[in-house]
TrEMBL record:
It comes from Massilia yuzhufengensis. It comes from the Bacteria. NCBIfam families: recJ (TIGR00644). Residues 77-234 form the DDH domain. Coiled coil: none annotated. Belongs to the RecJ family. This is Single-stranded-DNA-specific exonuclease RecJ.
Length: 567
């Protein structure tokens, strides 16, 4: 089976790129930025002063006053976190930040296999029993926890919800909710991660305490010391890197490169074999994030959070090594599950299906999300993978393609077939749900019906978007340094160029990768296409990223091939 892939060039508004260039931006970067919708060089500022102020977040002032009063009254607070990297960094950020302000605060991490996701009544009961708090603060969850908040209210525990997930039709009856995606919130960046929302709440709380004379600008807690955690959670949660998120990430990365980071973050760099002094968003998303996530996937997230809350480098290093082991185990489980998934999909015919739903009795709940991601990349279809839960329930994790809103699709299925989905939640690109095992086939049909109604053939083609040709003089390590000075990621795609080359030579490496020597205008370039082992014709149209490859102390430009086709 093959999915059609084609190379396209992003349209670039000439006037916008010209304005940016006249504003002193490198001509190629000006073109790249303009093609990503950037109109003003000020949107490239990575200074903290350029952050959107907290006051734009609905109810944030109420939250600040409430928390300041609670700290003054010596009330006990417990943070209830989600079990992924965003949840872990949000929990560590909240814990560290609130303690800096003098709060009595602790945290609890529900085991996802026993309690599921979010603030459920069972978790409230557990928290009340183990921590006896006056106040529960949710981080990276809570917007859908209607029953859990009712249970907390019944027990006389006040709840502060901080979350970024999309709300359902009703909101929980919490004391205060801070979420840029709640109705009537005018905050311009709807893409804050859970950890970003928490960081904003801390900024507002600090301002409130300053107003009360608890400290002044010189003696106030230094919240910018938390930015390494904010950057890690933001990149790992794959939220859109709009101008506001780019500032948070750039500032966190700047601190990492300068060696100013928490012991756990430093230990994760070390165990992943990455250099913090040249930290990049790629390291956070593909080296540190998965190691933290692995704990929540296979075990419980307390290990990941402890890694981020300890200040003892020895303890952090010991935990990072454990996390690394768990991540290796996660990779093994994932590889097995993927093989099984491909067997299930052996007869899958992409021309006749718009979606994929797949369930296996032997699968692991903690890893289905990654498997859904891999299948979605392979088949380029919205994909939901299911694993057995408790007592006849099965849990699904979905990953989507551009233009198909996963959470809205599940919402529609639940309205068309009442009673089919027990609970669901999430975003446009990722969502989770629970159904009865015996309803799997009816669910797959209902989900496919939404897919065939919503998706066009054109949306089911994989498109490699590029920034067009690159002038010869910019195939240089100096230009690569210019590119590396910017934060690229979700919604602000790293530059991919595209041009016609003569294929001078090619050979297959380790049976898996294609190593190429390409020529254009009399200049030759080394190139590699990872994970591809079929040879190219003599002339090829190649979509590629630039990479500075260091070998024996010499740094040369090499092209990382994203896709290639006959010219």
């Amino acid at each position: 089976m093959s999915i059609t892939t084609r190379i396209s060039t992003r349209p670039c508004p000439f006037r916008a790129s010209e304005m940016l260039r006249q504003g002193g931006i490198h001509p190629v970067l000006a073109r790249i930025y303009a093609a990503r919708g950037l109109l003003d060089a000020r949107e490239l500022s990575s200074e903290l002063a350029a952050l959107v102020p907290p006051s734009g977040l609905k109810h944030i002032d109420t939250a600040a006053v409430f928390l300041a009063d609670a700290i003054a009254a010596g009330k006990r607070m417990t943070i209830v976190a989600d079990y992924d990297c965003d949840g872990a960094t949000a929990c560590a950020t909240a814990l560290r930040g609130l303690r800096m302000m003098g709060a009595q605060v602790d945290y609890i991490v529900p085991n996802r296999f026993e309690y599921g996701y979010g603030l459920t009544p069972e978790i409230v009961e557990l928290t009340a029993r183990e921590k006896a708090p006056d106040i529960i603060i949710t981080v990276d969850n809570g917007i859908a926890s209607i029953d859990g908040v009712l249970e907390a209210n019944r027990r006389g525990i006040e709840v502060v919800v901080t979350d970024h997930h999309l709300p359902g039709d009703a909101l929980p009856a919490a004391r205060v909710i801070v979420n840029p995606n709640q109705p009537e919130c005018g905050f311009p960046s709807k893409h804050l991660a859970g950890v970003g929302v928490v960081f904003y709440v801390l900024l507002a709380l600090r301002a409130e305490m300053r107003k009360r004379g608890m400290f002044d600008a010189a003696t106030q807690p230094k919240l910018d010391s938390l930015l390494d955690l904010v950057a890690l959670g933001t990149v790992a949660d794959v939220v859109r890197l709009d101008s506001n998120n780019r500032i948070l990430v750039a500032q966190g990365i700047k601190r990492m490169r300068a060696g100013r980071m928490h012991a756990g973050v430093a230990a994760l760099f070390r165990v992943a074999g990455r250099e913090a002094r040249s930290a990049s968003p790629f390291d956070l998303g593909f080296a540190l994030g998965p190691r933290l996530n692995a704990a929540g996937r296979l075990d419980d997230m307390s290990l990941g959070i402890e890694c981020l809350v300890t200040d003892d480098p020895g303890r952090a290093w010991a935990i990072a090594q454990q996390l690394n082991e768990i991540n290796l185990k996660r990779r093994e489980i994932e590889a097995e599950m993927q093989d099984t998934a491909l067997l299930h999909l052996d007869s899958f015919e992409p021309t006749s299906a718009n979606t994929i739903s797949v369930f296996d009795q032997g699968w692991h709940q903690g890893v289905i999300g990654i498997v859904a991601s891999r299948l979605k990349e392979k088949f380029f279809r919205p994909t939901i993978t299911f694993a057995p839960g408790n007592e006849g329930w099965i849990k699904g994790s979905g990953r989507s393609i551009p233009g198909f809103h996963m959470r809205d699709a599940l919402d529609l299925v639940s309205k068309r077939v009442p009673g089919l989905i027990d609970k669901f939640g999430g975003h446009a690109m990722a969502a989770g749900l629970t159904i009865r095992a015996e309803h799997f086939d009816s669910f797959a049909q209902a989900f496919e019906a939404v897919g065939s109604a919503w998706l066009t053939q054109a949306q089911l083609e994989r498109i490699v978007e590029t920034d067009g040709p690159l002038e010869d003089e910019y195939y240089s390590t100096q230009f690569i340094e210019q590119i590396d000075g910017q934060v690229w990621g979700q919604g602000f795609a790293p530059p991919v160029f595209c041009d016609e080359f003569r294929v001078v030579s090619q050979r297959i490496l380790k049976e898996r990768h294609l190593k190429l020597l390409l020529e254009k205008n009399g200049r030759r370039y080394d190139a590699i296409w990872f994970g591809h082992n079929e040879s190219l014709p003599d002339r090829a149209r190649v979509a590629f990223r630039l990479d500075a490859n260091e070998y024996n102390g010499v740094t040369k430009v090499q092209l990382l091939v994203e896709h290639a086709e006959a010219a």
